[in-house]
Design goal:
The chain is of the alpha/beta class. Helix content is about 25%, strand content about 20%. It has six helices and 14 strands. InterPro entries: Calcineurin-like_PHP, Metallo-depent_PP-like, STPP_CPPED1.
Length: about 350
């Protein structure tokens, strides 16, 4: 074989290898898509810390950053009420002046974490011009393992050939994440979204609790290290903390002792949870002062009364947060009527 012929042969071989590799990569991607639901959703905007360029920074009467927290959306095509409530919230927020600058979804974004739930969520969100959207996982975002081949909730056949990994991947793909927990900076303020990392298919002992790994809590500690200046930081969870001194269990944050210890050195820390769905009106205390400011949000999808009954099906609630130079205001919103709730109205002075 001549040198020229050999070179032509080598070039042809390289082209064939390249084509084969491209085909293999495509097959692998298709495999991942099938396992995770193949749902293209809302990519989280990656932002870095920086100075607040807003000229209002010198005016104590003008908010420097405004964001809405929605918890427990439970979006599902099987429950049109959840979709209606989400649309009510998004329609209502369009009228806000100044505008909502970030939308934060704190767990149970979907009812079962199925592909069809995320498709319904995407269909609804894509109809609106939205600010940056951030989210973490709740226990219901892992619930696909309870759904059998007939589409029924079936405890006897759980996990129905499915895994917690698939639920995580589906959530992460929808929001453009590499892990279920992440953080972001908006208008110079830090949003930290912690996330339940496993459910009962992988860790039966956690029940409906939010288990955080040592890796995630070390990551939280590292992220908080930049807050020695006392600038407010906003931490999102889903399940609530147990009473002080307890480490948590089902329907609670796990491990709570280490979580509280990490927050102790810092001032002006605001922590938010959902999960309980409790109405801002006539139920439980929604603000608790510890070494941090702790707020229990209501629910957008299904507001419950004190007896955990979904009696007022028309109700849809969220929490609006505005940061000022010397304070943070937090107000409960009734989206079904487009009104503020006087029972959920707090002003926290910054120290």
């Amino acid at each position: 074989m001549s040198r020229r012929a050999f070179i032509r042969w080598m070039l042809g071989l390289l082209v064939m290898i390249g084509a084969a590799l491209a085909g293999l990569i495509k097959l692998l991607q298709q495999s991942v898509d099938r396992q995770t639901g193949g749902t293209d959703g809302v990519a989280v905007q990656k932002t870095e810390p920086g100075p607040n360029p807003d000229p209002a920074v010198g005016n104590p009467g003008v908010p420097l950053f405004s964001f809405m927290i929605l918890s427990d959306l439970h979006v599902s095509p099987d429950d049109p009420g959840t979709v209606r409530h989400l649309k009510q919230a998004l329609d209502d927020m369009k009228q806000f002046k100044p505008p909502v600058e970030a939308l934060v979804l704190t767990g149970d974004v979907t009812d079962y974490g199925r592909e069809r739930d995320y498709k319904e969520l995407k269909k609804t969100l894509s109809a609106y011009k939205l600010p940056p959207v951030y989210a973490n996982m709740g226990n219901h975002d892992y619930y696909d393992i309870w759904i059998d081949r007939k589409g029924d909730f079936n405890k006897d056949t759980m996990p129905n050939g499915k895994t917690d990994w698939q639920s995580r991947e589906r959530f992460q793909k929808f929001f453009g994440l590499s892990k279920p927990y992440h953080d972001a900076w908006e208008k110079g303020y830090h949003l930290i979204l912690l996330s339940q990392e496993a459910y009962v298919q992988e860790k039966p002992e956690v029940g409906e609790g939010a288990w955080y790994s040592d890796e995630q809590l070390d990551w939280l500690k590292e992220r908080l290290a930049s807050h020695k200046d006392g600038k407010p930081v906003f931490i999102m969870t889903h399940q609530p903390l147990p009473p002080a001194g307890k480490d948590g269990g089902t329907h609670q944050l796990i491990p709570a002792k280490k979580f509280r210890e990490i927050l102790k050195p810092y001032k002006n820390v605001f922590v938010f949870c959902g999960h309980r769905h409790q109405d801002f009106q006539g139920t439980v205390e929604h603000y608790v002062k510890e070494s941090f400011h702790y707020f229990h949000n209501s629910s957008l999808g299904r507001v419950l009364n004190r007896n955990y009954q979904h009696a007022a099906k028309e109700k849809a609630q969220g929490l609006y947060v505005q940061v000022y130079r010397d304070k943070v205001t937090l107000r409960g919103r009734a989206f079904e009527s487009g009104t503020w709730l006087k029972e959920a109205d707090w002003t926290v002075k910054l120290t």
